[in-house]
Every structure is written in structure tokens, then in C-alpha cells.
């Protein structure tokens, strides 16, 4: 999240924002100063009854929409049975069923196992624990612009200083960063691979590196799609040096890119994957999924957590899987991505109002840059913030991201109707071209 607050709250929203300011830590950001009262599929309403089309999806959490009826049915049924025993104390069926489903859909060949946890950052932390434990090695390579969470290790792996690392140091040792290829900034796949080779010469011997962690499509960093050639070169480099490849699919997973996982576009497999966000359609659940021999390396009790794989969250995830199985969500993702990319290209082609830079995406994981002049590349963070304000005031919630805070990312629920999708894009277009 980039901007702390994006508009001047009004009415009873303002009173709540004031209470929030007094009661809540300043360190927790707030993208929109409106208090949500109700949410359904791709729409939310605030406490004043104002309607917003949601192109933020709770930051990539509701790919199957807010409160999908199937997800809610699973949740209500589970509420009547058991809400907590702690899976490490007395297990329950939904926990095991979610692991089985994740093992089946993971793009990893051979025997696969899963460990459920609660948040994305926790999944990342545990992926590194699995990698270290199996490999008997310590270090990890990550990428500039990558985002892996706000815990100590998560922020150390994250490749962006402000606000994630600012004044929170020192960082845990043994984490190295290399450039992520960005064609329009002149950073190539060769540059990234060369940087790793240099790292092996200058900073750390490959035999000390347990894993390379990468988002197949960077999320918070600006929706940059990892070129297939990069992923293939990383796979080879990992194989050559006996290093594990971890795909962080927390933002790019669960249908967002038109496939279940973005790694399916890449032609190579990771050894471990992290998933969270849209896994449970609005309930806190995350997982590490990986090759069974790696997942079985820690001793019992070394992995887990009191709430890890909570029964309600697991029931919700089973609902999400059912929605994927019955509602053609992947085809909807491909279609949504096509519509968004066509509309964004058409808006940019008008060359009016705010200047749009690079437009990019994979499936329905789409974004564009806001730049200082038409045809230019210079990031314009102020204009980006202004655009989010304008859209919110007109009833569209959009989120910014990016190392330069000038990227608008679209994370519309994949279940949104085409009518609502176009309605949202109309608001966006009017806000950009200045109507
Ligand atoms: C790629 C990626 N990894 C990790 C995380 C951290 O997840 P959480 O916020 O659930 O801890 C995020 C959250 O945005 C993410 O996008």
C-alpha cells in the first residue's frame, strides 16, 4: 500500500476516521477513509449507504467475490460444528481436505504435501524454514521490488525500503537482493542472472544458499510479470547449485492470472510455493505447498501455530475450491483480463488527461503506470494518488502499488459481472481523461 489516506472523509465516515486516528496505531495504513458496512461480490457499501465498485478485492483476497454464497454456505455449516481445537491438538477433516486439494492443484510434480498457516507472511517465513531445514543451508536470494510480508523475515526478503523496512532494522542476516527484469526500465533477464552470478563471486558462495524466492508476477512491486526466460534460467541455476526455487503465489495465485497459479505460465516448476489471500475468499488462511521430501524435513512441532488452518477458514477454502470447480473462474479470469487490457489500451490511445505509461498484466492481474507526460516514462506518484481519490469519490475503489508509487493495479473479483466491470472501467476512464 502506498498512500496513507486518499481523500477527505465525509459525514459519519469522518467521525469514525477520527475515532480510528485516536485508537489505532499510525503504522497501520488506510487507503480509503470510508467505513464499510456491507460487501457483496464486486460491490461494497459504506455506512452512509454509498456504493463502490471494488477493483481492489481486499488486496487480492476475494477472487471469488465478497461473501460468495457457496463459501458462506461452507462457513455457516462449519460454524454449527466446531470453530477451534487447534489442528496440532485434535485434527479435523476440513484441514486435511484443504491440504489434499492444494496438493492436487499445485504445479509441482511427484509427491506433494502442504502445511497450513494463517497469513501470507507466515507462509513465507515457513517456506524459508522448510528450505533451511531440508537443505542445511541458511541464505536466501530475493528480488528488488518483491514483497513478502511485514514480519521480520518477510520485510527482510521484501525489496522495497519505504514504508516496509524504514526504521525497522537491522534486518535478519543472510538475505540478498538482485534486480527483477523490467523491460521498459532497461533491466533484462541477463542483468538479473548476471547479478546472481556476481553475488556468488562477491558476497555468498552458492553452497550457502538454501533458496531463491520470487513472485512469478510481482504484486506490491508493480505487477511486473516475470519473463518465462527468467524463471527457466532460475530453475537451471537452482538445479546447477542444488538451490530450492520458491514461488510466492500469495497475490498471483487462485485464478488471478487466468491459470490456477502463475507458475503454470512459466514452463518450469518450483520446489515450494506460498499461497494465501484468495485461498479462503476473505478468511485468514495461508499455506506452504511443496515437494513431500522438503515438507517432511522438520520434526513434528517445528511447524504450526495455534490458529494455523482454523476450521472456519478451512471450510471457506473448501467453498472457494467448489466455486472454481463449478463456475468456470479461470475462463472468467482470462475474459476479464482481455476486457481490462483492451479498455486500458483504448483509454491510453486517447492521449487526454492524465498520462498513462506502461500497461501490463497476465490474465486478470492488470496494471498501468501513471507518468508525468504523454509518451513519457517518468513516474508521477502525486497524479496516481489523485486518480485514486477521484475514482473513490465517483464510486470506484482502486489501489496503487509500485516501487515508485505510480502504478494502478486492478484486482477485481473474477466473479464480477461484465456490466459491473465496464461500469468500473467507465469511472476509471472518465477520471483519467478528465470528464
Ligand atoms: C506476494 C506476497 N507475499 C506475501 C504477502 C504477505 O501476506 P500477508 O499480508 O497475508 O501477511 C503479500 C501480501 O500482500 C504478498 O502480496
Helix/strand layout:
Elements: H1 11-23, E1 36-40, E2 43-46, E3 51-54, H2 57-60, H3 69-79, H4 93-105, E4 112-117, H5 120-135, E5 139-143, H6 152-157, E6 175-178, H7 189-202, E7 209-214, H8 228-241, E8 244-248, E9 272-275, E10 286-291, H9 292-295, H10 311-326, H11 329-350, E11 355-362, E12 365-371, H12 381-393, E13 396-397, E14 399-401, E15 407-410, H13 418-433
Parallel strand pairs: 3-13, 5-6, 5-7, 7-8, 8-9
Antiparallel strand pairs: 1-2, 2-3, 4-10, 9-10, 11-12, 12-15, 14-15
The chain binds pyridoxal-5'-phosphate (PLP).
Description:
The strands form 3 sheets. The protein has a 7-stranded mixed sheet with strand order 4-10-9-8-7-5-6, with helices on both faces. It starts with 10 loop residues before the first helix and ends with a helix. It has helices spanning 11-23, 57-60, 69-79, 93-105, 120-135, 152-157, 189-202, 228-241, 292-295, 311-326, 329-350, 381-393, 418-433; strands at 36-40, 43-46, 51-54, 112-117, 139-143, 175-178, 209-214, 244-248, 272-275, 286-291, 355-362, 365-371, 396-397, 399-401, 407-410. Helix 3 (69-79) packs antiparallel against helix 10. It is built from 13 helices and 15 strands. By secondary structure, the protein is of the alpha/beta class. The structure holds pyridoxal-5'-phosphate (PLP). Pyridoxal-5'-phosphate (PLP) binds next to helix 5.
Query: What distance lies between the first and last C-alpha atoms, to the nearest angstrom?
Result: 27 Å
Radius of gyration: 21 Å
Q: Strand percentage, roughly?
A: 15-25%
Residue share in helix: 25-40%
Number of strands: 15
Q: Helix/strand-derived class?
A: alpha/beta
Number of helices: 13
Main sheet makeup: 7 strands, mixed
Bound molecules: pyridoxal-5'-phosphate
Shape: globular
Strands in their spatial order, largest beta sheet: 4-10-9-8-7-5-6
Average pLDDT, all residues: 96
What pattern of helices and strands is seen along the backbone?
A: HEEEHHHEHEHEHEHEEEHHHEEHEEEH
Amino acid at each position: 500500500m502506498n498512500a496513507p489516506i486518499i481523500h477527505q472523509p465525509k459525514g459519519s465516515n469522518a467521525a469514525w476516521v477520527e475515532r480510528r486516528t485516536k485508537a489505532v496505531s499510525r503504522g497501520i495504513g488506510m487507503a480509503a477513509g470510508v467505513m464499510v458496512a456491507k460487501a457483496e461480490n464486486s460491490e461494497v457499501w459504506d455506512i452512509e449507504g454509498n456504493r463502490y465498485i471494488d477493483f481492489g478485492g481486499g488486496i487480492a483476497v476475494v477472487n471469488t467475490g465478497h461473501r460468495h454464497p457457496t463459501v458462506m454456505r461452507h462457513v455457516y455449516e462449519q460454524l454449527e460444528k466446531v470453530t477451534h481445537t487447534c489442528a496440532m491438538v485434535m485434527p479435523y477433516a476440513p484441514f486435511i481436505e484443504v491440504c489434499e486439494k492444494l496438493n492436487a492443484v499445485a504445479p509441482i510434480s511427484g509427491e506433494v504435501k502442504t502445511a497450513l498457516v494463517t497469513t501470507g507472511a507466515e507462509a513465507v517465513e515457513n517456506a524459508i524454514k522448510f528450505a533451511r531445514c531440508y537443505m542445511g543451508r541458511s541464505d536466501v536470494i530475493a528480488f528488488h521490488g518483491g514483497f513478502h510480508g511485514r514480519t521480520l523475515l518477510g520485510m527482510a526478503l521484501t525489496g522495497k525500503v519505504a514504508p516496509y523496512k524504514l526504521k525497522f532494522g537491522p534486518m535478519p542476516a543472510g538475505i540478498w537482493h538482485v534486480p527483477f527484469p523490467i523491460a521498459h526500465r532497461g533491466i533484462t533477464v541477463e542483468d538479473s542472472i548476471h547479478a546472481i552470478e556476481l553475488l556468488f563471486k562477491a558476497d555468498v558462495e552458492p553452497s550457502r544458499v538454501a533458496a531463491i524466492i520470487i513472485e512469478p508476477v510481482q504484486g506490491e512491486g508493480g505487477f511486473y510479470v516475470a519473463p518465462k526466460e527468467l524463471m527457466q534460467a532460475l530453475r537451471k541455476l537452482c538445479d546447477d547449485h542444488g538451490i530450492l526455487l520458491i514461488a510466492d503465489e500469495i497475490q498471483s495465485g487462485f485464478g488471478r492470472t487466468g491459470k490456477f497459479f502463475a507458475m503454470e505460465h512459466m514452463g518450469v516448476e518450483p520446489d515450494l510455493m506460498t499461497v494465501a489471500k484468495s485461498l479462503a475468499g476473505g478468511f485468514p488462511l495461508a499455506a506452504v505447498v511443496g515437494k513431500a521430501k522438503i515438507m517432511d524435513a522438520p520434526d513434528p512441532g517445528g511447524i504450526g501455530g495455534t490458529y494455523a488452518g482454523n476450521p472456519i477458514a478451512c471450510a471457506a477454502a473448501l467453498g472457494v475450491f467448489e466455486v472454481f470447480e463449478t463456475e468456470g473462474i479461470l475462463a472468467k479470469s482470462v475474459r476479464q483480463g482481455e476486457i481490462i487490457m483492451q479498455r486500458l489500451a483504448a483509454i491510453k490511445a486517447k492521449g487526454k488527461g492524465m498520462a498513462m505509461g506502461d500497461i501490463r498484466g497476465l490474465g486478470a492481474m492488470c496494471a498501468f503506470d501513471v507518468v508525468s507526460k504523454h509518451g513519457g516514462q517518468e513516474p508521477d506518484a502525486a497524479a496516481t494518488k489523485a486518480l485514486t481519490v477521484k475514482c473513490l469519490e465517483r464510486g470506484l475503489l482502486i489501489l496503487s502499488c509500485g516501487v515508485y508509487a505510480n502504478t494502478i493495479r486492478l484486482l477485481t473479483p473474477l466473479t464480477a459481472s461484465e456490466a459491473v466491470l465496464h461500469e468500473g472501467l467507465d469511472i476509471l476512464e472518465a477520471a483519467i481523461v478528465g470528464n
